[in-house]
Write a structure and sequence with these properties.
about 130 residues
Length: about 130
């Protein structure tokens, strides 16, 4: 699985594995469950592309999630990270607003919300 390759530090194999999973979904029956699973895989694939330094590929994969679920908070955090790397701070703030709006009642211990809040703090501190 892509996650195992990722844990082993083999980003190229992880990307290939995640892409194969997405390709398999293309021919499957579409349901809420498969759509949700595709989002998880796309977010992982986007993160892997980011880790590999390919922001263009990451953005392309993640933008597809937003076509399906525009308010998906994790996807918006990942896109905010890409925007920050590209010094597009306005776009980053917009993505973070979406994420934190979805997570406004999340406990302080929730990892993804903490990640978004840390990015906001980074933007605010300049």
């Amino acid at each position: 699985s892509a996650r195992i390759y990722q844990l082993k530090g083999d980003t190229a194999a992880a990307i290939e594995s995640a892409q194969r999973s997405l390709d398999a979904f293309a021919s499957s029956v579409h349901s809420i469950e498969t759509a949700a699973h595709q989002v998880l895989i796309r977010n992982m694939l986007g993160q892997l592309h980011m880790d590999n330094g390919d922001l263009e590929a990451a953005e392309q994969v993640l933008e597809e999630v937003l076509r399906i679920f525009p308010g998906h908070p994790t996807t918006n955090v990942l896109l905010a990270e890409i925007a920050i790397r590209r010094n597009n701070f306005t776009r980053a703030e917009n993505h973070l607003d979406v994420s934190l709006g979805a997570w406004q009642n999340a406990p302080a211990s929730y990892t993804e919300a903490r990640r978004a809040r840390a990015l906001v703090n980074r933007l605010e501190s300049g």
